[in-house]
UniProtKB/TrEMBL annotation:
Source species: Microvirga makkahensis
Family: Belongs to the adenylate kinase family.
Record InterPro entries: Adenyl_kin_sub (IPR006259), Adenylat/UMP-CMP_kin (IPR000850), Adenylat_kinase_CS (IPR033690), P-loop_NTPase (IPR027417)
Domain comment in the entry: Consists of three domains, a large central CORE domain and two small peripheral domains, NMPbind and LID, which undergo movements during catalysis. The LID domain closes over the site of phosphoryl transfer upon ATP binding. Assembling and dissambling the active center during each catalytic cycle provides an effective means to prevent ATP hydrolysis.
Entry EC number(s): 2.7.4.3
Ligand binding (ATP): G10, A11, G12, K13, G14, T15, R127, R178
Lineage: Bacteria, Pseudomonadati, Pseudomonadota, Alphaproteobacteria, Hyphomicrobiales
Keywords of the record: ATP-binding, Cytoplasm, Kinase, Nucleotide biosynthesis, Nucleotide-binding, Transferase
Domain of life assignment: Bacteria
The protein's name: Adenylate kinase
Chain's role: Catalyzes the reversible transfer of the terminal phosphate group between ATP and AMP. Plays an important role in cellular energy homeostasis and in adenine nucleotide metabolism.
Length: 193
């Protein structure tokens, strides 16, 4: 299964991705991790990415899609993968779709977590408090001001993906404000259809 999870920061994409990895036995792909691995491995795309990053610039969509193209060829991703945090823009989605088509592949599901954004701030504050109580490092983005900045970026860049995938008849939505196990059940039902 090739799956994209969409939704604003704090919507539960990461939590559900971990559960999907366990259930489906396919990897969750992080573009940041893939970029670092490609640079470290010195792959052709990694060399290009390193040159761009060394100049302090953002890596282009073509390079990111190239890194994903290489990564999905690895044995663990042949049965499928979960993307959360990519694509971030409609341009990335179009480039990603074109790359999949070149490989004769297609997405199986695009699942968006719908949430009440006012309640999300409370959710991330609670997540930070729970991490502190467990003696864990608090995520840098679990701060209301940082979170609001990320939410603004999500609205301007990533939210248009909903309409893009809806127009393709691929978008399925889940109420991300439900308890975690209920969200997991809803995701499972979508994937089993």
């Amino acid at each position: 299964m090739r799956i994209i999870l969409l939704g604003p920061p704090g919507a539960g994409k990461g939590t559900q991705a971990v559960r999907l990895v366990e259930r489906l036995g396919i990897p969750q792909l992080s573009t940041g991790d893939m970029l670092r691995a490609a640079v470290a491995a010195g792959t052709p795309v990694g060399v290009k990415a390193k040159a761009v990053m060394d100049r302090g610039e953002l890596v282009s969509d073509d390079i990111v899609v190239g890194i994903i193209a290489d990564r999905i060829e690895e044995a663990d991703a042949r049965k499928g993968f979960i993307l959360d945090g990519f694509p971030r823009t409609v341009a990335q989605a179009e480039a990603f779709d074109a790359m999949l088509a070149e490989k004769g592949l297609k997405l199986d599901a695009v699942i968006e977590f719908k949430v009440n954004e006012h309640e999300l701030v409370g959710r991330i504050v609670k997540r930070a408090e729970e991490a502190k109580a467990r003696g864990e490092q608090v995520r840098k983005d679990d701060n209301p001001e940082v979170f609001k900045t990320r939410l603004d970026a999500y609205h301007s860049q990533t939210a248009p993906l909903s309409a893009y995938y809806e127009a393709k008849g691929m978008l399925k939505t889940v109420d991300g404000m439900r308890p975690i196990d209920e969200v997991t059940r809803a995701v499972r039902e979508i994937l089993e259809r």
